[in-house]
């Protein structure tokens, strides 16, 4: 990317993407960072569901597990333990919302809120206090690659310590035995689902990957929901929409996963363009969620659209689509909705410094804003 393109991308990443898509004469266009993106909605859905494009191992686990069945087993185990924890999470998130200060800094407060509400799910209270504190520091780091050098350096300094501490704790749990059919927390679920030949350190890396995937997207999705609801409703009264509508519309309007891409596994042609194996081809949920031919008023945040007939809505894939759709999509949606409901129940809210342009690194996350409780008369 040129210096000018970098500046434009940082200023407004989503507009930058839309400009490239609008200028493209073909259904697939080249991005400045040496990757390709599908512009056409029908072709995007075809790519996402194409067995050839999705042949081989998914990239989420980064080769940490030996086979696709092992990956699926781990996904099922973690999804089950999170789902069974939702009633506890509902009460925990209500308490965490009540403990928020009258003025809180977001989106970091969204991560903190979700982590406090899932702390015992992620790591049982009987676990080492030092390890639990390291996990708190890890969440405070933002969970995604920071756009600032100082933030990246802090995260890089903490990660080896955390991996080492989790590895030691896993060795202790494995030595005493873990019941795969009755996990106490996500770590138990990961240990129980991993084949015995998977090393303690690899299990630790898998566990931290799942912590990031649970707390990060959920916390940032809650932050987008809060920001967009406040920006589109006058302060002084609670939001007029059900929490589920707000969460779904926020995930449509500003999906945290704004781009889904992978290396083309075999030579293939998409949109009339030949691709060799190894080329990066992406589909943008953001572009699909803003297709004017599929969505009415896609540029407007309208939670009420989720009360309209389904045929009035276009493709919705905040958790991707096809063979590698996020297996925890329904659970993640439930976690976000419960947090949004708790915030709405806490009383009127307003934001200061809100900006709908995201910061994009590993995901599209809100820029810093303040959430304020509005005094009721």
Automatic annotation (TrEMBL):
<dbReference type="GO" id="GO:0016705">
    <property type="term" value="F:oxidoreductase activity, acting on paired donors, with incorporation or reduction of molecular oxygen"/>
</dbReference>
<keyword id="KW-0472">Membrane</keyword>
<dbReference type="GO" id="GO:0020037">
    <property type="term" value="F:heme binding"/>
</dbReference>
<protein>
    <submittedName>
        <fullName>Cytochrome P450</fullName>
    </submittedName>
</protein>
<dbReference type="Pfam" id="PF00067">
    <property type="entry name" value="p450"/>
</dbReference>
<dbReference type="InterPro" id="IPR001128">
    <property type="entry name" value="Cyt_P450"/>
</dbReference>
<dbReference type="GO" id="GO:0005506">
    <property type="term" value="F:iron ion binding"/>
</dbReference>
<comment type="similarity">
    <text>Belongs to the cytochrome P450 family.</text>
</comment>
<dbReference type="InterPro" id="IPR050121">
    <property type="entry name" value="Cytochrome_P450_monoxygenase"/>
</dbReference>
<dbReference type="GO" id="GO:0004497">
    <property type="term" value="F:monooxygenase activity"/>
</dbReference>
<feature type="transmembrane region" description="Helical">
    <location>
        <begin position="206"/>
        <end position="227"/>
    </location>
</feature>
<keyword id="KW-1133">Transmembrane helix</keyword>
<dbReference type="InterPro" id="IPR036396">
    <property type="entry name" value="Cyt_P450_sf"/>
</dbReference>
<keyword id="KW-0812">Transmembrane</keyword>
């Amino acid at each position: 990317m040129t210096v000018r393109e970098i500046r434009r991308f940082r200023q407004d990443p989503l507009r930058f993407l839309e400009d490239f898509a609008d200028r493209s004469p073909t259904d697939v266009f080249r991005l400045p960072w040496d990757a390709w993106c599908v512009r056409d909605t029908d072709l995007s859905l075809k790519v996402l569901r194409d067995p050839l494009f999705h042949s081989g191992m998914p990239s989420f686990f980064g080769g940490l597990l030996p086979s696709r069945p092992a990956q699926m087993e781990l996904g099922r185990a973690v999804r089950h333990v999170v789902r069974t924890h939702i009633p506890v999470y509902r009460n925990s998130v209500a308490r965490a919302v009540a403990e928020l200060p009258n003025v809180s800094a977001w989106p970091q407060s969204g991560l903190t809120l979700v982590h406090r509400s899932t702390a015992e799910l992620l790591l049982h209270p009987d676990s080492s206090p030092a390890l639990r504190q390291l996990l708190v520091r890890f969440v405070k780091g933002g969970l995604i690659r920071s756009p600032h050098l100082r933030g990246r350096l802090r995260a890089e300094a903490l990660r080896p310590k955390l991996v080492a501490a989790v590895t030691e704790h896993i060795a202790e749990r494995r030595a005493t035995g873990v019941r795969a059919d009755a996990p106490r927390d996500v770590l138990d679920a990961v240990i129980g689902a991993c084949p015995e030949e998977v090393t303690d350190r690899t299990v630790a890396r898998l566990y931290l990957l799942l912590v990031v995937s649970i707390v990060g997207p959920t916390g940032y999705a809650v932050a987008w929901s809060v920001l967009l609801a406040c920006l589109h409703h006058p302060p002084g009264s609670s939001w007029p929409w059900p929490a589920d509508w707000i969460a779904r519309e926020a995930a449509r309007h500003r999906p945290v996963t704004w781009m889904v891409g992978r290396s083309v596994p075999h030579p293939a042609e998409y949109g009339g363009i030949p691709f060799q194996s190894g080329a990066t081809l992406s589909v943008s949920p953001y572009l699909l969620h803003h297709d004017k031919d599929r969505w009415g008023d896609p540029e407007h945040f309208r939670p009420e659209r989720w009360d309209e007939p389904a045929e009035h809505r276009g493709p919705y894939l905040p958790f991707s689509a096809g063979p590698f759709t996020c297996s925890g999509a329904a659970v993640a949606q439930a976690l976000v909705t419960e947090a949004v409901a708790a915030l709405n129940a806490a009383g009127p809210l307003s934001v200061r410094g809100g900006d709908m342009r995201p910061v994009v690194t590993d995901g599209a996350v809100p820029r810093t804003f303040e959430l304020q409780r509005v005094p009721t008369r």
